[in-house]
Amino acid sequence: MVLEQPLRSVFMQLAKNKSLNKAAKKWGLKFGASQVVAGATLEDAIKNVQLLNEKGVACTLDHLGEFVTEREEAIESTEACLAVLRAIHETGVECNLSLKMTQLGLDIDESFCLYNMKRICEVAQAFTIFIRIDMEDYSHCEQTLRILSILRNEHQFDNVGTVIQAYLHRAEDDVNSLKGVPLRLVKGAYKESETVAYQDKATIDKNYLNIIKIHLNNGSYTAIASHDHTIIEKVKAFAIEQNISKDQFEFQMLYGFREQLQKELIDEGYKVRSYVPFGTDWFGYFMRRLAERPQNIAFAVRGFFGK
Which residues does the annotation say bind FAD (predicted)? Predict the structure, then answer.
């Protein structure tokens, strides 16, 4: 169940507040953020990835940051991504890299962002590490898919995929056009207009299951990113019914959430991957988590009182 729309809107607006984002970098991981963000440094994040690997959980690391408007900051973010790749390679952890292209300069210049992405993909390919381009708000959707196409088709990087959000009207068409591309399929976490996105949970859930089935039936590797037990059970039943191998898909969950469910899935022989964010630019990510589910507010309350 999502938050009531007025409260959800408040959190979504806070996520984009530049002044609060800037201040949050000085606060440290306050207000419960440390429960869903795996530390401020790469060293902290790698330690948490190692702990998760020991439990049988694969990971994807995300150096938090988005909506960058200065070239220097985008270059710093690119270097941070390269450092993550080196750390994954040197430590041998089972881990991918997730990134947002607005962090790499997408809002500055698309060709500049593409150059930064090529640098990252080249290193990742050499280390055989998969790169997941996170899908951001609707205004960046077309650019994201265009750059993905260039990377995969013109530059022959087969170690890169992206995310499709089920609440968008275009989701089914996008999944069909991306046959063979490893996709993470999600319900969607940004506030979007009804002209481009479904607004009610039942319709979003229906479309979510629809695009999952389409991508699986296309024989494409599929990451089902959901904490929704009902969705997960339906995917498991569909895979058995269609004789789809467990090697063709994985379940993904956010760091700090549904740990018992993750263990149960691993015990049943399913691959589970944790989305592990880290860094000082945590505020926007944390606000979106609060907007998604009323239960998440408990993180903030416990964090505020130091519990």
Answer: 135, 165, 187-189, 201, 226-227
Residue 186, pLDDT score: 98
Q: What DSSP line would sit under 86-144, residue for residue?
A: HHHHHHT-SEEEEE-GGGGTTTT-HHHHHHHHHHHHHHHHHTT--EEE----GGGHHHH
User: How far is residue 244 CA from its own chain's centroid?
Assistant: 24
pLDDT higher than threshold 80 for residue 298: no
Q: Which of 114, 103, 186, 183 is nearest to 146 (CA)?
A: 114
From CA 117, how far away is CA 224, in angstroms rounded?
24
pLDDT in tens, 77-112: 999 999 999 999 999 999 999 999 999 999 999 999
Q: How confident is the model at residue 42 (pLDDT cuts 50, 70, 90)?
A: very high
Tell me if 201 is assigned to a ligand binding site: yes
Distances (CA, A) of 150 to 101, 110, 143, 145, 254: 14, 12, 11, 9, 29
E strand segments, 150-214: 160-165, 183-186
- Taking the C-alpha atoms of residue 218 and residue 240, their distance in angstroms, rounded to an integer, is 16
70/272 Cα distance (integer angstroms): 36
- Flag whether 188 is marked binding: yes
Token pair listed for 81: 């991504």
- 5-20+55-304 to CATH, choices 3.40.47.10, 3.10.580.10, 3.20.20.220, 3.40.50.300: 3.20.20.220
Residue whose token pair is 């002044």: 19
H or E element at residue 275: strand 272-278
105's torsion region: left (phi>0), alpha (psi -120 to 50) or beta?
A: left
Q: Where are the domains of the chain?
A: 5-20+55-304
Q: Tell me whether residue 289 is annotated as binding.
A: yes
